[in-house]
Amino acid sequence: MENKNLFRQAKDAINNLMNMQGNGNASESDHQAVRQAIEAAYKDASPEEQEQLQQFEQQLKQNDQLH
Fold first, then answer.
1. Where are the domains of the chain?
2. pTM of this prediction?
3. Distance from the CA of 55 to the CA of which of 4, 19, 24, 61 falls in 20 to 30 A?
4. 3-36 pLDDT, tens per residue?
C-alpha cells in the first residue's frame, strides 16, 4: 500500500508544481521535491506506474528548460 501512496505523492507533486509554475510561484526547492518524490515512487511502482513516472520526469525536464 505504501507504493501506491508514493506514486500518489509523486503525481500530486508534479501537478502542484505545474500549478505553481503557472502562477510564477515555483522555486528550485519545489522542483527538487518533485524529483525526490518521483525517485521514491519508482522503487515499488508497477510497470504502468513506472511509465507514468517517466512521463512526469519528461514534464519536469521540459518545464526546467522553459524556466
1. 2-66
2. 0.84
3. 24
4. 679 999 999 999 999 898 877 788 889 999 999 9
